[in-house]
Write a structure and sequence with these properties.
The protein is α+β, with helices and mostly antiparallel strands and 425 residues long. The chain has helices spanning 10-21, 51-60, 71-75, 78-84, 94-101, 103-113, 126-135, 159-171, 239-259, 293-296, 304-313, 392-403, and strands at 2-7, 27-32, 42-43, 65-68, 89-90, 120-123, 140-144, 153-156, 182-186, 191-200, 204-206, 211-212, 215-217, 221-224, 229-232, 265-275, 278-285, 327-335, 360-364, 367-369, 375-377, 381-389, 411-412. Helix 7 runs antiparallel to helix 8. The longest helix is centred in the middle third of the chain and has 21 residues, at 239-259. Bound molecules: adenosine monophosphate and glycine. Residues 150, 212, 227, 285, 289-290, 292 line the site of glycine.
């Protein structure tokens, strides 16, 4: 089989690695890819939003299956563009990707179908939003409705902060048109868990649970980032939580989307908060999480191609999705200064230590090759060092050991990824 993967981050490196494990994949292309993906796929310099060039490449190169798991191209209709040309693609059509692309849509959906989530009000008029805040209790959460690179969420402790947040999102347009509409939402507390599911429009199959660490510094301090590390499975995702979510959240969401004429296929990401009153949906994404994928897919036993094909064909109920009974931890190694400004072009050494290793992976997120053929940094999050272990404790020790194998100037990482598991193990 000839496969084209769209994207070039750490998540895509983990997807590429899973595709490579499938005996069905003979040729793997990645557009645009990165220096790590280039070791296992042929990278082609086409942008992820250039649907004309991507579909032309797929047609010219007789691609049997294209895979896309990125919010911008999915919400902009990459799946629809491929299918209009008779090309087979794994991903979510735009009319269902709206579940991530519009928080106003997803909150309305949850309200209408009784899916447990934080209570909220939706506003497109800043004056009405400000008037509502006068009556609301603090803390409160403001969210830009549209796509904002995961940064359009403000947690406000005081009325003043909340009012200036409305100004930032709706009047100053800090996130552009993403802030034309905002969601003002009840503040909840609890542990967060990410659950990814494959879906075929009607049926779903759950992947193993995971947990992200979004803040830049140890002890959950500092600015929000795209994710500084993950572990899987989450010991907090208990059988009781699983049973509750199966009854109230997963199938109900798929049925709700189908009833709205937007059958969901692809990967549905449930961002959950485990509150004292039970699990609540924080957010939906229409794709694999990053860096959740880096700990979930290395633990997947099933052939990912079979699962993706079943999602496209509507036969997911016939697939047995199996995970290893082990654990994984991913430690992100970032450029000094991230998520603020940082330097690029630093030479990365030590990558060869990961060759021929079964239990260790170095997923590239922001890397490229320079003129001399050296691997250099090209982004804020640079590498995702992932290790397997028989349990979370062993996986964490392995991941931190392997994080010492690589070096570049100014690198930093968190030292407490997966530390929360100590309270349960
Ligand atoms: P979201 O993009 O909606 O997942 O929000 C990003 C992060 O903001 C989440 O991972 C939570 O840590 C936090 N958050 C979002 N909504 C709430 C809420 N209603 N209460 C408390 N924290 C929240
Ligand atoms: N790790 C969070 C996300 O992918 O949205």
């Amino acid at each position: 089989m000839r496969v084209l993967l769209v994207g070039g981050g750490g998540r895509e490196h983990a997807i590429a690695q899973a595709l490579r494990r499938s005996p069905q994949v003979e040729t793997l292309y990645c557009a645009p890819g990165n220096a790590g993906i280039a070791q296992i796929a042929e990278c082609v310099p086409i942008g992820t939003m250039d649907f004309d060039a991507l579909t032309a490449f797929a047609a010219d190169n007789k691609i049997d299956l294209t895979v896309c798991s990125m919010d911008d191209p999915l919400c902009a209709g990459i799946v629809d563009a491929f299918e209009a040309k008779g090309l087979r693609i794994f991903g979510t059509p735009a009319n269902a990707a709206i579940i991530e692309g519009s928080k106003a849509f997803s909150k309305d959906l949850m309200k209408k179908y009784g899916i447990p989530t934080a209570a909220c009000e939706i506003f497109d008029d800043p004056q009405k939003a400000l008037a509502y805040l006068e009556t609301a209790s603090m803390p409160i959460v403001l969210k830009a409705s549209g796509l904002a690179l995961g940064k359009g969420v403000l947690i406000c402790n005081t009325l003043e902060e909340a009012k200036s947040g409305v100004g930032e999102l709706m009047m100053d347009k800090k996130f552009g048109t993403a802030g034309d509409k905002i969601v003002i939402e009840e503040f909840m507390t609890g542990r967060e868990v990410s659950v990814l599911a494959f879906a075929d429009g009607k049926h779903y199959k759950l992947m193993s649970s995971s947990q992200d660490h979004k803040r830049a510094g140890d002890g959950d301090t500092g600015l929000n980032t795209g994710g500084m590390g993950t572990f899987s499975p989450s010991p907090f995702y208990t059988e009781e939580v699983d049973a509750y979510c199966k009854e109230h959240i997963y199938q109900r969401t798929l049925d709700a989307m189908a009833s709205e004429g937007r059958p969901f296929r692809g990967v549905l990401y449930f961002g959950l908060m485990l509150t004292a009153n039970g699990p609540r949906v924080l957010e939906y994404n229409t794709r694999f999480g990053d860096p959740e994928t880096q700990v979930v897919l290395p633990r997947m036993k099933s052939d990912i191609v079979d699962v993706m094909q079943a999602c496209i064909d509507g036969t997911l109920d016939q697939v047995d999705l199996v995970f290893e009974d082990n654990a994984a931890v991913c430690v992100v190694i970032a450029s000094g200064g991230y998520p603020g400004s940082y330097e690029k072009g630093k030479v990365i050494t030590g990558l060869e230590a990961f060759q021929d290793q079964d239990a260790y992976y170095c997923f590239h997120a922001g890397t490229k090759l320079n003129e001399k053929g050296e691997v250099v940094t090209s982004g804020g999050r640079v590498l995702g060092v992932t290790a397997l272990g028989s349990d979370l404790k062993e996986a964490r020790a392995n991941a931190y050991k392997a994080a010492e194998w690589v070096h570049f100037d100014g690198q930093y990482m968190r030292h407490d990824i997966g530390k929360a598991i100590d309270s349960v193990q």
